[in-house]
Amino acid sequence: xxxxVLDTETTGLSADNGDRIIEIGCVELLNRKLTxxxxxxxxxxxxxxxxxxxxxxxxxxxxxxxxxxxxxxADQLLDYLRDAEVIIHNAPFDISFLNKELExxxxxxxxxxxxxxxxxxxxxxxxxxxxxxxxxxxxxxxxVDNSGRTLHGxxxxxxxxxxxxxxxxxxxxxxxxDLGDAPGEDGQVEVIDLRRFELPVLLxxxxxxxxxxxxxxxxxxxxxxxxxxxxxxxx
Length: 235
Known about the structure:
By secondary structure, this protein is of the alpha/beta class.
C-alpha cells in the first residue's frame, strides 16, 4: 500500500481569489513505513504573498523569484502521486489549490490521478472531539517531536504529519503491520492468529478510572449530551 503525506504553503488563503502555491512537500509511506523517497518543490507563484501568510511560512517573495513555476513541476508531481492514497491535514484547502493550478494548465483535477484522499484533520476531529486538532496540538498529544517547527514548512509539516498519522491509525492490527519486516519465503507476511495467546486482563486502578470518566465527560460535553451512553441511560 503506497501512501503519500502531502502539504503545501501558499501566498494566501483563497485559491479562487488568485492565491498560489509556493511550496509542496510530499513524504512516501509503503506499508506504513517511511521510505525516504520524498518530493519537495519551491514554486514561483508569479505574485507576492500576503503579509499574514509571510508570518506563517516565512518564505520571502525574493527567495521564490528564480524558482520553477508550477507548469514546470506539474508532470513530476503527478507522476509521483499517481494511484497513491494522499493524506492531507485539512485536505479541502490543499486540494483546492492543486486543482486551481492544474486548471490554469488545462489539466484535469488531481483526483483523476491519485487513488484517494484521506483528510487527517477530519480523522482527528472524530478521535478527539472538542479538542484542538491542529498539527502542533496533535504532535503534543501523540508524542511526536515538533521542536524544530518554528515556522510552517511543507516538507517538515508533511514529515510530522506522517508520524502523527501513523500514531493515530495504530490500532489492534499494529502487531500484524509490524511483521512487514519479516516476510515468508513466498514474500507474503505471515498472519498470526492472536486467539491462541492467553492475554492477561488488567483492571483499571482508581486514578485511571477517574481519568476515563473525565474523558467521557469531555466527549459528552462536546456532543451536547448526544453520546450513545447518555441515550441508553435515558431510554
